[in-house]
Specification:
The complex is a heterodimer of chains A (241) and B (261).
Chain A: E1 8-12, H1 19-26, E2 38-39, E3 42-43, H2 49-56, E4 59-62, H3 74-85, H4 90-103, H5 119-130, E5 137-141, H6 149-166, E6 169-174, H7 177-181, E7 186-191, E8 194-199, H8 201-206, H9 210-216, H10 233-238
Parallel strand pairs in A: 1-6, 1-7, 4-5, 5-6
Antiparallel strand pairs in A: 2-3, 7-8
Helix pairs in contact in A: 3-4, 3-5, 4-5
Chain B: H1 2-35, H2 38-42, H3 44-54, H4 59-83, H5 90-128, H6 131-137, H7 142-181, H8 185-195, H9 198-225, H10 231-260
Helix pairs in contact in B: 3-7, 4-5, 4-7, 5-7, 5-8, 5-9, 5-10, 7-9, 9-10
Classes of the chains: A alpha/beta (241), B mainly alpha (261).
Chain lengths: 241, 261
């Protein structure tokens, strides 16, 4: 699996197939049992702690529910990485934060606390925070989950626009077919820990691979069975030995 | 007959094993915390903020409890002492009981339930909502940014709270003994001054409260950091903080008293 520079790549697959694990491997929060992840020429799990932290400064990650710091205001949340990693003067931090918030359309919400935000707004603030240091690689963990259609398309647009504006690469982990196929350059399908299919959105839409077809057209039964593995139904109901 | 018995022993063995494993894990966590403490002192305002959250916000409960404990000591002490005609020594009794034992121990117990539980819940919830994970991904070590300042905040706050508890207690003893009952004021204070030794009594009390501060803060941050990232996990961790801290304080108090006095 390769993520080329400047592109938005979607990683799709059913719930629990290891998509989030993949992001944690890229971020170095988990170590692979076999295989390796290379980011910008560096093998992630072989890096020393300080090198790993240096690499992470060039990554941004949007967590599923935003993971905003609940004790800090929206402004301070976005300012947090800047305050921790730079010695910029306060006025510059203020301007930068307002620019980042403006990019996600929430400049007016700078003084709100995270508990005053809707789910979609919280995710946009988290997005502003994850691009605070202009990362080269932005990772999105299920950015579309639980959003209304308007917020959903806003987030989709933002992912595309920010990626192109920053000249970054983006990885979008998702199971939302419609929202992601509209914005990405390339798609990987993951199933049972391996790549089941890959291609551009058009190729994926036309794909005849049964698993991909079931997924894209949202069919309840197919290669991915409706039933969780279980004993024989009759046998279980009638309690036969 | 054999199976329940062997299951029992197996269960006991597993618990002992788990306990030892956890103790080892906590020790390694403590070491990592100490190594990551640079930020807490270089950016001291982070620690000061935690002193405010753990210390200043615990003031009310500490001061009020101290006052009442002192008043009870005044009443009980007077009842006993006057039987032997030595009610003039009430000041000594109140002061020694507070400075040596009740001040550090009671404020430690109150500190564990007021501030320790709050610290555990805060760190546990940050973990459950992926805030610690997000911090890691921002290349910020959560142990140095979140855990260590809370630990040192508690360590700094605890001896001060214990001292205030003792001071309020002595005031409570004075109110009951001198003002309400009518013990001689001069005797109350002068006997206290001659009998309470600075090195022997007060410094040892302060050492105790420092030890309790380290223990309670460590347990609180460890339980929070190690909690299961679910609502149930955080609530269990909070309970464990209070129970473990209380037991550890009482046990450590026994050991320290045996060594000191």
């Amino acid at each position: 699996m390769t993520i080329p520079r400047g592109q938005v790549v979607a990683i799709m697959g059913g719930s629990g197939c290891g998509k989030t694990t993949l992001l944690r491997l890229i971020g170095g929060q988990l170590r692979p049992q076999s295989g390796s992840v290379t980011v910008d020429g560096q093998v992630v799990h072989r890096l020393s702690e300080s090198k790993l932290y240096a690499l992470r400064r060039r990554m941004g990650m949007l967590f599923q529910f935003g993971a905003l710091f609940t004790d800090l205001s929206v402004f301070e949340n976005v300012a947090f990485p800047m305050r921790e990693h730079t010695v910029l003067p306060e006025e510059l931090i203020r301007d930068l934060v307002l620019m980042k918030l403006n990019a996600v359309g929430l400049r007016g919400a700078a003084q709100l606390m995270p508990n005053e935000l809707s789910g979609g707004m919280a995710r946009r603030v988290a997005l502003a925070r994850s691009i605070a240091l202009d990362p080269q690689l932005i990772m999105y963990d299920e950015p579309f989950t639980g959003l209304d259609p308007i917020s959903l398309s806003i987030i989709g647009q933002l992912i595309r626009r920010l990626n192109d504006a920053l000249g970054a690469s983006s990885i979008v982990v998702t199971h939302d077919v419609a929202a992601s196929l509209a914005i990405v350059d390339y798609v990987y399908f993951v199933s049972e820990g391996r790549i089941a299919a890959e291609g551009t959105p058009e190729e994926i839409m036309r794909s005849e691979i049964p698993f991909v077809k079931q997924f894209v057209h949202a069919e309840p039964d197919g290669p991915v069975p409706f039933h969780y593995p279980a004993r024989d139904y009759r046998e279980q109901l009638f309690r036969q030995p | 007959m054999m199976t329940p018995l062997s299951n029992f022993f197996r269960g006991v063995g597993r618990r002992v094993n788990d306990g030892i494993w956890r103790l080892g894990y906590a020790s390694r966590f403590f070491l990592a915390l100490l190594l990551q403490s640079g930020v807490s002192f270089r950016r001291f305002h982070l620690t000061i903020k935690e002193v405010y959250f753990t210390g200043v916000l615990s003031l009310i409960v500490i001061l009020v409890s101290g006052l009442f404990v002192g008043m009870v000591l005044g009443l009980q002490g007077y009842n006993t002492l006057q039987r032997y005609g030595s009610s003039d020594s009430l000041g000594v009794l109140v002061a020694l009981a507070l400075v040596r034992e009740l001040g550090p121990v009671m404020s430690g117990l109150l500190f564990a339930s007021r501030a320790g539980s709050a610290v555990t819940a805060a760190i546990g919830l940050m973990k459950a909502t992926e805030q610690l994970s997000a911090m890691e991904m921002m290349a910020i070590n959560p142990v140095s940014r979140v855990v260590a300042p809370r630990f040192w905040g508690g360590v700094i706050a605890m001896p001060i709270l214990a001292a205030l508890f003792s001071a309020m207690g002595i005031l409570g003893g004075y109110v009951v003994g001198v003002i309400l009952i009518g013990v001689d004021e001069g005797a109350f204070w002068s006997q206290m001054q001659t009998s309470v030794d600075f090195r022997e009594d007060i410094v040892n009390g302060v050492i105790k409260s420092c030890v309790f501060g380290v223990l309670v803060s460590l347990i609180a941050v460890f339980e929070g950091y190690d909690s299961e990232p679910t609502a149930e996990g955080v609530s269990n961790a909070t309970t464990r903080t209070v129970v473990t801290s209380s037991l550890v304080i009482l046990f450590a108090d026994f050991i320290l008293t045996a060594l000191m006095f």
